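Posting this for the archive.
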Amino acid sequence: MESITQPQTPAIGPAPGLSLASRSLALFARPTQAWTGLERRGQWWFPLVVTIVVVMAGMALTYERAVVPMTLERLQRQVESGQVPPDVLSRFEGQMRSPFAMGVNVGSTLLIIPLMTLATALLPWLAVGFVLGNRFRYRDAFVVTAWAGMIGLPAQILTYALAWTNQTMNNLHVGFGVLLPVEDPPSKLMVGLGTFLDHGIGPLSLWYVAVLAVGAAALSGAPRRRVLLAVGGLWLAVILVISVVAALFAPGA
């Protein structure tokens, strides 16, 4: 009797991940679909490199035009009030305009961006793993935070564009802080309010938090709405503390 051979069913493996370009575009166009495959291969280095390059370029372009004039203006006020000897101003100006000072200022991004990403990753990790009680590795929280950081690039680019135009880093707002009255120099109250309105409830900041929460929900399997509420609540609490600290340490009255 002739034997009948059953056709073999191909094994169903995990869904293929997205390419770096496709994932980057999906973050902005289809954020709910941007996380496929990250639980297996995080590729966190790519968004970090892109963010570092953008920030370094922005800092390099605005250093002489905005950072140095703002710093020297602040020091000039201290000289006029008698807090700093007059000879310090000329010596400090020479130091700030040196290639070494600019290199240190721009190069510090190589350390600051990864450290900030590591610290920010604690937010979704705590929100999902402790507040909601779902299993969520810190490694996955870091990957999500690194990729969601690309959502912050429009705000970074806008900030550097405003700094270039205004030739200062003071009174730059990319959120609802633009509604505050302009003070030169800004008072402690305006610094604190501006920080909260821009980075706490500003449209670009809320966009970033929403994408961060969507990514945390995708990799943890937790309900998206609960993750959004937990991450958003912790975000507002952290930004409120940062705003208070910024106001306390601001040089204004």
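Residues 1-15 have pLDDT under 50 and may be disordered. Residues 129 and 136 are 5 Å apart (CA to CA).
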